[in-house]
């Protein structure tokens, strides 16, 4: 490729990385928050305690904004398959196109059908129907993650495909092997748990903020307690699932694990675990490495003396960039252990009956509030950059999947994306933070009684229940 082509490719990759990372922030929050809302409404229906209803209404307004920003930011990404990655779309479209269509036909339609009832229907439908709507929205967010992760997992571990005469990937026999490809179950569980942890940390951070401000209402204490239970129970599970995912990656994408571990050289008698260091792709070494002998072999092979291959067994053209993957992986893992520490500390505070009074715990929880977002982005970088130089692992190189684009055009659109995203979604995020700055309280208001009608005909008030006009009669006859 020419220098211009290389520049265009780099810009196209940066643009997609920017938009997908920005987008991933919102689903990683809304997936967990939708389930949290379902739990809150279920507890309210079961116990009748108003604190759960107040918390439901409080977080419902935040969910509505985060969900909307997730949908809008996600739509932009799909256009890039045609503008910047048309070759990829042509070659892989027969496989990934139907899977992404299934996401729209199932998850998106389910969410769109019930979201309005969830947001505006509590006073218009029965409690059971409204709870059903909330459950359907929560289910829709999970189904959406199911299909999108199935697509991504197939690109990581492609199976069940054949090549047609046009050079396109097509299903070889059926769809089951494609959908449930070897890495999909691990990636699905790992990502969904990450979304739940992200939500729990945000809820816990908001609760900690208000507790530090002395706002110890039943609502504030309840949401902080629920968040800490989630951190204490789910963080250890996430570490276990992450370990299983890593073993699966070692089996199917060994070069990615080599980059994560910083193993440029093979280790025939047990590989060390490099905790920190400065990887150098050119020199093929990790400078100033701080390592624990043979621990990597123990973790990955369950045998401290087990041999581990290094990147010296992989052609240079097929190696991922170690300098990025090495550090993104450590950021993710490091934050995961901090989440575990927060959960364990909350158990100590709970046992000492100081959960709502221990300011050290509250400060820690507040500091960890945004850590879930950082961890999921770091994990996404590890997954995607670790797959390079392939867009479909071992089958289609990224440089062969890009559209015939010019660098100036991509640079212009990238600059436009950056400006618009930071302005539009920055304003939305600031508004969410403003809502979080107010503590939930008794009598918490619901979202607007009805969606604002920005177009079309506004129904007559006479179209209310039973056809009666709910407005007071001010006519002369009434006098």
Automatic annotation (TrEMBL):
Pfam families: Cyt_bd_oxida_I (PF01654). Its main location: membrane. It is found in: Cell inner membrane; Cell membrane. Residues 468-479 have a biased composition (Basic and acidic residues). The chain crosses the membrane at residues 20-46, 58-79, 99-121, 128-149, 188-212, 224-241, 324-348, 360-381, 414-433. Keywords: Cell membrane, Electron transport, Heme, Iron, Membrane, Metal-binding, Transmembrane, Transmembrane helix, Transport. One of its GO terms (molecular function) is oxidoreductase activity, acting on diphenols and related substances as donors, oxygen as acceptor. It is a multi-pass membrane protein. GO terms for cellular component: cytochrome complex; plasma membrane. One of its GO terms (biological process) is aerobic electron transport chain. Residues 445-479 are annotated as: Disordered. Belongs to the cytochrome ubiquinol oxidase subunit 1 family. This is Cytochrome ubiquinol oxidase subunit I. It comes from Allosphingosinicella flava. The lineage of its organism: Bacteria, Pseudomonadati, Pseudomonadota, Alphaproteobacteria, Sphingomonadales.
């Amino acid at each position: 490729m020419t220098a211009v082509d290389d520049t265009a490719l780099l810009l196209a990759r940066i643009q997609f990385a920017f938009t997908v990372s920005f987008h991933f922030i919102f689903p990683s929050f809304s997936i967990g928050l939708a389930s949290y809302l379902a739990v809150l409404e279920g507890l309210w229906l079961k116990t009748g305690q108003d604190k759960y209803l107040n918390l439901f209404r409080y977080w419902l307004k935040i969910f509505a904004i985060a969900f909307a920003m997730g949908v809008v930011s996600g739509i932009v990404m799909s256009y890039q398959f045609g503008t910047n990655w048309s070759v990829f779309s042509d070659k892989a479209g027969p496989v990934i196109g139907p899977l992404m269509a299934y996401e729209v036909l199932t998850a998106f339609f389910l969410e769109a059908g019930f979201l309005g009832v969830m947001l505006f229907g509590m006073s218009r439908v029965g409690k059971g129907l409204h709870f059903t709507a909330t459950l359907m929205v929560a289910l829709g967010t999970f189904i959406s993650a199911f299909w999108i992760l199935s697509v991504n997992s197939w690109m990581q571990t492609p199976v069940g495909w054949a090549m047609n005469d046009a050079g396109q990937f097509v299903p070889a026999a059926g769809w089951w092997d494609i959908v449930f490809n070897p890495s999909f179950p691990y990636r699905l569980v790992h990502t969904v748990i990450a979304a739940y942890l992200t939500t729990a940390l945000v809820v816990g951070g908001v609760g900690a903020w208000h507790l530090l401000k002395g706002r110890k209402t039943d609502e504030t204490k309840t949401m902080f307690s629920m968040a800490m239970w989630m951190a204490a129970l789910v963080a250890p599970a996430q570490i276990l699932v992450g370990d299983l995912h890593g073993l699966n990656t070692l089996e199917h994408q060994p070069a990615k694990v080599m980059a994560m571990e910083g193993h440029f050289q093979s280790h025939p008698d047990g590989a060390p675990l490099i905790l920190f260091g400065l990887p150098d792709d050119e020199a093929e070494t990790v400078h100033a490495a701080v390592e624990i002998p043979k621990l990597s072999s123990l973790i990955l092979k369950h045998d401290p003396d087990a041999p581990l291959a290094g990147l010296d067994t992989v052609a240079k053209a097929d190696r991922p960039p170690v300098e990025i993957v090495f550090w993104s992986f450590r950021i993710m893992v490091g934050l995961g252990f901090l989440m575990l520490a927060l959960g364990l500390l909350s158990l100590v505070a709970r046992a000492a009956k100081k959960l709502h009074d221990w300011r050290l715990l509250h400060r820690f929880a507040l500091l960890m509030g945004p850590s879930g977002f950082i961890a999921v982005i770091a994990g996404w970088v590890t997954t995607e950059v670790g797959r390079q130089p392939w867009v479909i692992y071992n089958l289609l190189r990224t440089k062969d999947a890009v559209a015939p684009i010019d660098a100036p055009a991509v640079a212009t659109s990238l600059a436009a994306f950056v400006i618009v995203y930071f302005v539009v979604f920055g304003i939305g995020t600031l508004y969410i933070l403003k809502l979080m700055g107010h503590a939930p309280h008794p009598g918490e208001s619901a979202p607007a009684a009805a969606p604002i009608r920005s177009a079309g005909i506004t129904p007559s008030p006479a179209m209310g229940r039973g056809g009666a006009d709910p407005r007071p009669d001010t006519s002369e006859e009434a006098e």
